Amino acid sequence: MEKYKQSFIQGTIILLAAGIVNRLLGFIPRIILPRVIGAEGVGLFQMGFPFLMLVLTLVTGGIPLAVAKLVAEAESKRDSKRVVRILHLSVLFTLVLGVTVTLACLAAIPALSRILFTDPRVGYPLLWMCPVIPIAAISSVFRGYFQGRQNMIPTAASQLMETITRIIGMLVFSFAMLPYGLEYAAGGAMVGMLAGEIAGLAVLLLQYRHYKSKQPVIAGDFPSPPLAKPYGKTRPDTTKSLLKRLIQVSVPVTASRLVGSFSYFIESVLIVQSLALAGVATAVATMQYGALQGMVMPVLFLPGVLTYSLSVSLVPSLSEANAKGDLKTIHTRLHQSIKLALISGAPFAVFLYVLADPICYYLYGNSEIGVMLKMLAPAALFQYCQGPLQASLQALNQPGKALLNTLIGSLIKLSLIFLLASKPEFGILGAVLAISFNMMLVTVLHWNSVTRLLRFTMPSGDFLKICLLIPLTGAACMWVMNHAPVEGAFTRFLLSLTAGTTVYVLGLPLLGLVNRVDLQKLPFLNKRGPH
User: Fold this and answer.
1) Which region among 59-63, 236-240, 373-377, 445-449 has the lowest average model confidence (pLDDT)?
2) How far apart are CA 294 and CA 352, in angstroms?
C-alpha cells in the first residue's frame, strides 16, 4: 500500500481535481431540476434534505475521521494487523447503527411531515431517503480507511462515480415521477441520490479488493526498507479496546458535526415556520426556501470543494505529525491550508457579490434571487476558511472546542432567523442575514481556538495583500460589466469574469502571494513530487 500513498499536497490536489469535476457536474441537476419540477418541487426536496444530513451525521459523522486518524497512527507504527481490525470493526459498527437508525426514521416519517413541516408533501422524499443511510454509512468507513492510509484516489474515484450516477438518477427519476405530482418528483430526486450512493460504494469496494490483492501479507507487518526501524510497538488490541478507542475519537467529532447538522435541520423548519408567521403562504414559503437552499447556497459553496479537499488531507497529515510531536509540520500544513483557502476563495467571493444577478439569471433564469447571493457573498470567504480550521481542531484531539464554537454560532443563528424572518419587512432575507452572520462568527471562533492552542499566527502581509487584490478584482469586473463596448449582456458577463480572473491571477505573483516554490510543489510541474 505504501506505493499508493500520497503527500499532503498531492492528496489535496487529487481530491481538489475530483471535487471540481464533481461540483461542475453537480450543477447539472441544480440548473435543470428547477426547470423540470420548479422552485416549489426543489423546496420539497430541500426540506427533506436537511433531515437526511442530520441522520447521516448521527450515523457517520465522526466515523470517517476516527478511522482515518486511527489508521494513520497505526501506519506510522507499521502495525498492519491493527489497520485491518480497525476497518472490520468500523464496518460492523456503522452497519448495525445505520440499519437501526433507518428503521427508526421509517417509523417517524408520518409525524415529521405532519408536525414539523408546514407542507405534508415532504414525507415522500423523506421515505426514499431511508435506504441511503446504511449505504452511506459503509461508504464513509472505506473513505476514512483510504484517507488514513493517505491514498485519496479511491475517495476521488468513488465521489466521481457517485456524482455521475446521482445526476442521471435525479433527472431521470424526477422527470418520470412528475406526472404523479411534485411530491413524487421530489421523491424521485431522492431515489437518484440513492443510486449515486450505491455506485460510490461499489467503486470503493472494488478499490479495496484491488489493493488487498496487491498486498498478500496484509495481515502482517508493513514491508519496510532495509534496516528501517518501526516507530514503536503497541500491545495487541482487543475488540473492546479498539471499539472504545473508535468511539472516544468519533463521538466528540460526531457531536460537533451533529450541532451543525441539527442546526441545519432546525433551520429548515424554523425558516418555513417563521415565514408563516410573517404571513407568507405555504406554497410561496416552500418556493423561497427552495430558492435559498437549492439554488443560492450551492453556488455559494462551489469553491468549498477546496475546503473539503484540504480538510480531508489535513486530518491524517496533522494526526501523524501530532503523534510524532512534530509542531513545525503542523504549523506548515496549517499555514498552507489557510493560505490556499484564502487565495482560491477570494475571487469567487468577489464574483458572487459583483455579478450576483447575472449569475442567478444565467443559471436558473431568475435574477430576483440574486439579492440573496449578494448578501451572502461577503461571508463566503470566512466559510471557505472554516473547514481547514475545524479539521485542524479535530486532528489535534480538540473536537470539544470545535463543538463549542459551532454550538454558539448555531444558537445565535437560529435566534436571528426567528427574530428576523418572522417579520414581514425582512422575510426570507432575514434568514439570509442570520446565515451570513453565523458563517463569520464560527470561523472567527475556530481561528481563535487554533491560534491559542498552537500559538499559530498567519503573516499579516498575506491578509493585507488579499484585501488589496479583492477590490481591484471587483473593480475590473464591475467596469467591464457596465462599460464594455460590446453588444449582448451575456458577452459582457463573460468578459467581466475574464477581466476579473486576469487581474486576480496576475496580481497573485506580483504581490508575492504565489511564487516559484509554491508552483514547484504541484506534481505536474515537479517530477520529483511535492513535499
Assistant:
1) 236-240
2) 16
Neighbours of 425 (CB within 10 A): 8
Nearest of 435, 308, 312 to residue 64 by alpha carbon? 312
* Cα 388 to Cα 378: distance, rounded to the nearest angstrom: 19
Closest CA to 110 of 98, 100, 124: 124
DSSP state of 295: I
Q: Which three-class secondary structure state does DSSP give residue 139?
A: helix
C-alpha grid cell for residue 449? 481556538
Cell triple for 506: 496576475
Q: Are 390 and 431 in contact (CB under 8 A)?
A: no
Q: For residue range 266-295, list pLDDT tens digits in order.
A: 888 888 889 988 888 877 888 888 888 888
Q: Which of 469, 264, 294 is nearest to 372 (CA)?
A: 294
Start-to-end CA span in the chain (Å): 19
Cα dist from 229 to 81, 352, 440, whole Å:
17, 53, 46
Per DSSP, the residues of 414-428 read HHHHHHHHTSTTTTH
Q: How far apart are CA 174 and CA 98, in angstroms?
A: 26
CA atoms in the 13 A half-sphere facing the CB of 106: 11
Give the C-alpha separation, 189 to 122, whole Å.
12
How far, in Å, CA of 359 to CA of 209, rounded?
A: 44
Q: CA angle at residue 129 from 124 to 130, to 5 degrees?
A: 110
pLDDT tens by residue, 377-412: 999 989 888 888 887 787 777 777 888 898 899 899
Q: Is 206 exposed, middle or buried (0-12, 13-18, 19+ CB in 10 A)?
A: middle
Write the CB contacts of 406 (distance below 8 Å, at least 6 apart in sequence): 256, 259, 260, 263, 390, 442
Helix-then-strand count for the chain, H and E: 19, 0
156 Cα distance to chain centroid: 14
Q: How far apart (Å, rounded) are the C-alpha atoms in residues 55 and 271?
A: 20
Burial 395-408 (b: 16+ CB within 10 A, else e): bbebbebbbebbbe
Tell me the CB-side half-sphere exposure of residue 3, using CA atoms within 13 A: 4
| CA atoms of 173 and 124, how far apart (whole Å) | 13
DSSP labels, 222-275: PP--TT---S---PPPPHHHHHHHHHHHHHHHHHHHHHHHHHHHHHHHHHHHHH
Residue 228 in this model has a pLDDT that exceeds 60: no
Q: What is residue 157's DSSP assignment?
A: H
Quote the cell numbers at residue 450.
487554533
Residues 6 or more apart whose CB falls under 8 angstroms from that of 83 comprise: 71, 74, 75, 145, 148, 149
